[in-house]
Amino acid sequence: MSLTLNSQMIRLFNSGLKIVKSHQNQILLEWEHVLAHLQEGEKSTKNVEDTISFFIEYLFTKEVDETDKDHVNVATRNSDPFQTNQFIITFLENAVHKVIQQKENHSYHDHQAVQYLFSTISDDILKQPYHHYFTIESFLKNLVSSNQLPIEWAAITIKKDHFHFVEKWFNNLSQDLLLGSDELKADTVYSLSELLLNQMPKDNIAKYNVLTIPHEDLILLICVEHHDTSQIMPFITYALQTYQYGKDSFKENKQEQQWKDSVIMFNETIMRSRTYNEAVENITAGFVNYLPFERCALFSYSVNDQMGFGLFGHRLDNNAIQNITENISNLPLIQNNLQLLELFGKSVSYLQPIYMEDAARGFPDQYVRQFELSSVVVAPIYVSSSSKLLGAAILDQGRGKHFKVAQETFSALTKFGQSAGEILSKHQNNHHDDKQHTGELRLSPREIEVLQLMAQGASTIEAASTLNLSEYTVRDYISAIIQKMDTKNRTESVAKAIREGLI
């Protein structure tokens, strides 16, 4: 199973579609008000009416298809061209947000799903003139209609239920040779080619040859004269390769836009966080809501202790996650990447996510059994400006599920980790804006030990001797404790730790 960002964006698209469908009557009423408001002239009114008609037909008659692999193009499929613009579409979308905002049970994520639904359809409508360049039918029609190529006709065939059917058949005048509802089928491609040749005038049949060219899940049939076969076949093959290259490039551009959309929505969500606690929860949920994962656990990382501490779990036992305190030496794959970070320091602009096909090779057995881990991804939470690793998000597709990760998902994960790092760093450095920060950040075991010795009245030198550390290291711990606890000095830190039950 391969995790693609497209599958997650389909889910988001369908989520927005379901929300809109559930408010059909209120939305139609609101759109009537929009139409009345925009009636400034006959032409503009016609454009608004056509746009509303299209969205009514598409949104309220289309079934939600969880398996649709190309939801971006469905917006203009089988629809007549009409004039519209982004201004009109935005008015209609705002009307939908106004309707669903009146319902208290809708979250910000729901509004984002609706926003993605409209932006996807809008892109498809406004880019409609360019779509035909990347259809095999358009490609063949250009070849057949060319005055420089001696092609008599071309056909597109499909195989279904052990038969080969003619789906499209046209000549150099772009005339439909199927004549409406005629159904042409045969047991083999050769028999189908013979059937098509027999539709031609009998006096000409002997002059022609049918070239058979496989393309994806189709078979293309090109009719040329016998003496032109050897010359035209290489050209058609080359032209088809060029067409496929352009189509693949167009698809890659769409995929790139998808992961950028995913990053934008993730950033919008986590930037709404008002406290460290909210940031942690929004980040953890965001990795699942905007990427093709089912579970996420967020961990902080202590450089001094080389320890990881569980912060939050989304669709996991949160208490179990928060009770995890693990030495990085027990996670060799992660430790190796940390050593690379220490080696290259600020010359590293980003940290690559780690994919583990089998979690048992990188995690202690107790966690593999407890959470039924199979394949996992570890996404670093990282502040690139200071080369500081704050923690990591551990993600999977659910209990016991194996998966692989597509390249565009890796690209999005890298950006997610950087954005999450910036937000967490911001809240860590603004304690006065987040009174719950100390409890959420949690002190490391070593910092707790230092606090306990301070509570017992030990000096810095005595604490260093007890812990087998240098005096300077202990001072660093004390500074970190004061900063984390938002206190003024050692005495206040100890008092607050006792009140909070930390020691």
Q: Count of helices?
A: 20
Taking Cα atoms only, what radius of gyration do you get, to the nearest Å? 31 Å
Classify the fold: give the CATH topology of the largest domain: Beta-Lactamase
The count of DSSP E runs of length 2 or more, i.e. the number of strands, is 13
Q: Main beta sheet: strand number and arrangement?
A: 6 strands, antiparallel
Low-confidence stretches: 74-78, 431-440
Mean pLDDT: 82
CATH H level, superfamily name of the largest domain:
GAF domain
Q: Please indicate the count of domains.
A: 4
Share in helix: 40-55%
Strand order of the largest sheet: 9-8-7-12-11-10
Instruction: Return the structural class.
Output: alpha+beta
Characteristics of this structure?
503 residues; 4 domains; five-stranded antiparallel sheet; 53% helix; elongated
Structure description:
Helix 1 (5-21) crosses helix 5 and helix 19 crosses helix 20. Residues 74-78 and 431-440 have low confidence and may be disordered. The protein is of the alpha+beta class and 503 residues long. The protein folds into four domains: 2-130; 135-245; 272-433, Beta-Lactamase (2-Layer Sandwich); 443-499, Winged helix-like DNA-binding domain superfamily/Winged helix DNA-binding domain (Arc Repressor Mutant, subunit A), CATH 1.10.10.10. The two termini are 47 Å apart. Helix content is 53%, strand content 16%. The strands form three sheets. A six-stranded antiparallel sheet has the order 9-8-7-12-11-10. Strands 4-3-2-6-5 form a five-stranded antiparallel sheet.
